[in-house]
Amino acid sequence: MKTPVFIAFLTGLAFQLSAQEGTVSIQQDPRIEQLVKLYAEANSKAEFYQIQVGFGNFQKAQNLKNQVDIDFPGWYSKIEFESPTYRVRLGRFRTKLEAERKYLEVRKKYPDAMLLKPESSSQ
Questions:
Q1: Where are the beta strands (DSSP E) in 1-123?
Q2: How would you write 77-106 as a 3-class SS string?
Q3: Residue 62: which of 74, 72, 54 has the closest Cα?
Q4: What is the reported pTM?
Q5: Which among 5, 24, 52, 58 is least buried, having the fewest CB atoms inside 10 angstroms?
């Protein structure tokens, strides 16, 4: 007798239970979105010195980038396409002094590396 009553009680309880529903709304200062846009715009136009390690077809550039990532972990690296070749570039250096110091370090491993100035730099 206890078992059927217990089962009936659990069944009734199960029908009474329901998941909670709700919505989450985030209220933030509208100026935050403006600041994020301003930050993204400033970084997209930022001028950096870079070191070009090498170039070639896509597969060669990918292999070179993988090796560069091993040789210089934590450094920013990327592959850029400039027709007709892919170029492997390393670093985002704000000052010429910093770029030249890193360039000397990179040249030990990649003697054909070139230091690239920012495109609209007056230095």
A1: 49-56, 77-82, 85-93, 114-116
A2: EEEEEECCEEEEEEEEECCHHHHHHHHHHH
A3: 54
A4: 0.60
A5: 24
